[in-house]
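ERR on first pass: missing label on line 2. Operator R.T. fixed the label and resubmitted. Corrected input:
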Amino acid sequence: MTETGRHLWRRLGLNDGEYERICADLGREPNRVELNMYSVMWSEHCSYKHSKSTLRLFPTSGPRVLLGPGENAGVVDIGGGWAVAFKIESHNHPSAIEPYQGAATGVGGIIRDIFTLGARPVALLNSLRFGSLEDARVRYLFDNVVAGIGGYGNCIGIPTVAGEIAFEPCYQDNPLVNAMCVGLLPVEKLVLGQAPGAGNLVVLVGARTGRDGIHGVTFASEELSEASAERRPAVQVGDPFLEKLLLEASLEVIAGGLAVGVQDLGGAGLTCAVTETAARSGSGMELELDKVPLREAGMSPLEIMVSESQERMLFIIEPGRFNDAAKVFRRWGLSFAVIGRVTADGWITVKHGGRTVARVPAASVAGGAPLYEPDSREPEYYRERQSVDPLDYPAVEDCTEALLEVLGSPDVASKQWVWRRYDYMVRTCTVQGPGGDAAVIRLRETGQALALAVDGNGRHTYLDPYRGGMMAVAEATRNLACTGAEPIGITDCLNFGNPEKPEIFWQFRRAVEGMSEACRVLEVPVVGGNVSFYNEVEGEAIYPTPVVGAVGLLENPDQQCDIAFKKAGDLLYLAGSSTVSLGGSQFIKVIHQAVAGSLPPVDLALEKRLQKLLVQAVRAGLLSSAHDLSDGGLAVALAESCIAGGLGAQVTLPGHPRPELPLFGEGPSRAIVSVKAAAREKLLALAAKLEVPLLFLGEVGGDKLSISVTHVPVVDVTIFELKKIYEESIPCIMEQ
Amino acid sequence: MKFGIIVFPGSNCDLDAYHLVKDVLKKEASYIWWEETDLSGYDALILPGGFSYGDYLRAGAIARFTPVMGAVIQFARQGGLVLGICNGFQVLTEAGLLPGALYRNAHLQFRCGWTYVRVENHTLPFTGAARPDQVLKIPVAHGDGNYYVGPEVLRRLKKNRQIVLRYVDAAGRESAAANPNGSLDHIAAVCNESGNVLGMMPHPERAGEALLGSEDGLVIFRSLLQYFDQRGGGSGD
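pass 2 clean. output:
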């Protein structure tokens, strides 16, 4: 190993041990092209080398699971010969330096993951984190990320139906952009990212390959710094129109049974697509790079192999079916080329200008990265922050003022300013769009509907990764249950700092443990997802932010429920747990500018019973509304249901010397439901049967929200005032 | 009555229009690929929403040069019924079948959401089933819906009653807040002089089922069916 050599692999993100392993697998030192192929595939982004052993904790199987983690997306059976494919993925680093394109290509990438399997994408969701909106650059990032998500999704014609956004100073220069796509496919058309059959053709379809996005995955696998702006060329540029053509052509080719394997080109470009498909089938490939359609002349083999130009797909096609597939590609005006053939030897042989420029074992490149079990250490802040008693903060004098302040804080306030820029109705299947607990989309093909939600709370996970992880899963699935849907699977995006730091790895490990435990008890499998490490700027990590994308099934779209109060005289109940805490709450953040305290305990058995109650009550038509309690607690949830329904409520809560606790305390396993007086007995009986506590709160009606704690009025405010601050807060900040 | 739905590369509301005609109205519908030039057998054409050619260059500017548009222009000149929705409206203005142009929304953002429109002329093939001044709840979803025409043409549009829908609030009143894109004179839809070509920014095909939040869009389609029935059916050729 020469000094220059060592310099080279280190610069490419490989350590000395990894380099030695590459040499061992190859039986020699790699050349520059080979080293770059290894570098991108052994990056954290592609190899999951620091997370894989922890991810094994997730329960990934279940009676509905057709395809679990490790493929392009998870696939879950919904009966009648149909299945749902879904996945969430991060595009954090690109969005930090080029927000519009970073977000847009994040959406483009996740859409490709779905149609690659033969699934028609039917919905998009996203989870976003930014710094404080008081900062001008944060507003710029926020505005442009939203524009990028809309720009791509609107153009390609897939509705963006739900999402969530939070603002914390820790995301200032490292925003999180997690995009999720959901697709529908006939089970028999499911096609995998594989390359079986020696002699089959390797066909590259879609955009020409250019010099954009070189080493994007390596960039995604390091911390951000001052120098990151220079990485702008590592960010790709999206073309949603081309992807629309690619989508239609791909689905047509797959539906026609013309391909034996399909893989999209995303992170690590051609290198990833060829090595992964070959490795999955135990095959090899011989590639002729001279055949790859290029954007500009003179691109080197290395550039071609690691370019992350967007909107490209790899098809493995039997020679006898190529002409039929070619007809489809031509009809959609796509450029395509046979760039090689599948071989039986397990090696990827890359030729350029008549010379062999790389020859590597597919399984080594795609799956041979060493796995690490990093050191784990409880961070110092952990016990310190937990020991804070939120009730030590001074009592608030005016709870109505406090409610308005919490309701108008950007985390809680209406995100209409965001989602009115997304086409959430195209495909005419959106039964419930953004703004509620979960979106509901009907499935024309099966007569069913899906409920979709995405949730996460970095503040909670920071204070207590284990409980925070459990609560993320519990909240996402509870959101589905509030619409009447039964959760059938989740996908997760795990956004953390640098896992090589023991405190960060501890957060990661504990969060995954908590999530796994929740999944086990709630009987909901994790069918796919994504890990995003190195979310740090100048050594400062973001809050550990696991984001859960949950999918639920409604057998009948007519039997679904939303958050809006419907009718004066309906009775209000709090279903589930009465245990709350102000630790880590929105209230403490907004009113006392603190992130501290311990999270409430999580009773997963009760959570499960509550979700069952919600699903059964909606199906039986007992509920007028149901709303999950999360950020801002009971007071905020009541306000949101009032605003959504344009109806007030009169509520009395049991006594507490500090009314802010029952009003703003947060905790899992809770929902407010409203019910017609005539359905009351049935609901009480069902709750008794399922052993879910129901606490009578009051009645829907009037044009005010009035809340008393032990008959002392503490909140009294008109719906007009609530609505004004809720809806105008973010536009006011952004259009100042 | 048979509907033809024109499909350009990048159209994405073609499916929605097809579904509405086929599954909700239970009428015949076929997709028409942008390369086709034979439109015989169709009683009405729909140019659906979406992003034909990615809206690159300018919304509708490239679609206007496709072979099928030559045939659509012929079809319209012979009195055929043509309904352009959203991107379809943009294509029709680019093709010269409708006056005016659709600028970038005044606030420069894409806008999706429910709007109310008032029927300003209920005597057309597209509005015959509406009551005078009826207010319809129909959603919009566009970035370039800011309708503009010069003062001279605007006068003519008013005189000929070519302004078909205006954005209003739920109570039927015009206001800046009820106008989602800054359109001149709150114009949401216009027709040609002979009244057989209509362009509208709101999406009536998205308001065809109670489950989706409104059935008011059906007024447009039922008007077409009613007009066709009253004319005595047949392809009109």
